[in-house]
Amino acid sequence: MKKLLLLIFLGMLASCGSRERRADENRIIIDVESEAKPRIEIVKVVPLEYNDSCVIDRYSRLTGNDSCWFVYSYKTVTVFDKAGKHLHTIDAIGKAENEFLQVGDVSVSPHENILWINDQQSKKLLKFDETGKCTEVQKYSKYYYDFEIIGDRIFGDIFVNSDSPYSLVVMDKRHRIQKEEINKVRLERTIDMSSYNKFSWQNETLYYVPSFSNCIYRIEKDGAKLAYRFDFGDHWADSVFVKDQLGSKSLSEFRKRLDREKKLYFLGFNRNTRFLNLYFWMNKCPHNLFYDLETGKQYLNVSEEESGKNGALDEPVWLVEDDLFVTMVDAYKIASEPIYADIRAKYDIGEDSNPVIICYKIKG
User: Fold this and answer.
1) Quick check: 162 pLDDT over 50?
2) pLDDT at 5
3) What is the DSSP string of 75-114?
4) Rounded Cα distance, 132 and 50, in Å
5) What angle do CA 215, 217, 218 make, to 5 degrees?
6) Which of 190, 209, 335, 219 is nearest to 278 (CA)?
């Protein structure tokens, strides 16, 4: 009997140890003060066509699929082919059924030019075809900061000040909730410290970053599965710190406290075939960190100024294409910074031109 109990006890210990190891497999320790600098090889440069009907706002965001680039700001979505030629602009501003008041976020089908716009003010999703015509409108009841559509499922990131204790909601096409998951840091007021997406594609895989979280989740058909958990050490502004500081202080005071204590705020995540990319704010400036999945080496670029003196590395990564990271650089940086001299001369980029898309790979 004693031997049997001992075997059961050892089995329980082995089971616990196995669970701990499995949970720890997702953990990656991040050195936010790494002195190893990334080197890049620019593989493709795409100047976006400029004309009177497609003037790109400086604070625009970028997404894309197999055949098009989609550049979107608060009021418009401008569509270009992969060579940068302007195709059409969606700017249906208004209160009619097939119009929107704002572009809160967009979702693009990977293999066909179907675009969804999230109008957070009007609480509706609008579907546009490859010509820019609105073909479908869906209304919803909750506020979603970001969303993605996969097949017959809608995945929504719930605002941090909503009543829901969850961060992610899974719905059908009629916006009927199928599942809510991932406990969130709930705040009494909306805070928007970045303009970067909660969802990011890595080829055919979709990842999700909850607000104020150091975890990355892989989206599957009916929910989310933990993919990575980043250990930033003492630099991480955890949920206790965030709730304590935001409960009594203004947003500007909160940012000053983050900088003063060298706490970081996670802005975005991407992954290509070899590297993870983490974009975060710390000590008054953005950081672009690249983690080599094969070797475990880390390369860090710190953008001390907005000038872009480190080139494409000073910009956030917007999406990936196989082994490439894709960013978008404002024309005034291309026109003024020495590092862009070759691009400026080759493509005749001036300060009034539209942004330039740069696709690069990390060389270590």
Assistant:
1) yes
2) 45
3) S-EEEEETT--EEEEE--BSSSTT-BS---EEEE-SSS--
4) 19
5) 155
6) 209
